[in-house]
Predict the structure of Phage tail protein.
Amino acid sequence: MATILINRYHFLVDWGGIRTEFLEVSGLEMAIEVIAVREGSSKVESENKIPGLLKFSDVSFTRAIQKGDNDFFNWINTRSFGTVERRDVRITLLNERHEPLILWKLRNCFPVRYAGPTLIGNSSNIATETLVITHEGLDIESLAGNEKG
């Protein structure tokens, strides 16, 4: 049976804003903290390692700027007196038939950084904006059934 490779360019982001199209999503990472321990009575001159807490990377969302769409900026500005609007975010990778293949679910997210475009007078590139969010959990679901090439 041949392995079917999945393209990474066809995806949607459900983040609570109006637009779901993005140019790039990066930072879907998690790691287990390693805790080094050594018993005081141990004669071994090395440490034992045990798993600690899960750590999640911040996730960056980049999209083209569109006139009248301030959703990124509005979300980061919900911060007030130690609170901020938290949302769950879903990133769905789609196949060429627009069917969902993989779903990443980020729990209890809030924005930590907004970056507007770099403006260059002699460039024809589109203006983009980036929102970086932090979150408290990452779940991954494979949604594809039997794919046929």
